Amino acid sequence: MVTFDIQQLQIDTTHKNPRIILKKALELFDNIAIAFSGAEDVALIDMAVNIRKDIQVFSLDTGRLHPETYRFIEKVRKHYPIDIELLSPDRDVLDSLGGCPKIV
Hints:
Distance between the termini: 47 Å
Order of helices and strands: HHEHEHEH
Oligomer: single chain
């Protein structure tokens, strides 16, 4: 088990570039996953796979994503090659929240 001083970690990473911060996080924690929701997250994925090839990436799939989003996820999967796990909430709970018409 790795122990660390969170205040020292904050001091050590203040004003560092994102690649250095990400590398430190990946060194300290073996169970980090990146949440992927769109094009802006590709920069983080790119940095992560250059540091550690086995990075975990996930996306929340509400069943209401645009077709372009699914195509983009596939494009990123193929480009890096990584698995982007699609996680889906309970359909009944999601539908009870309203907002969009129920898809049958």
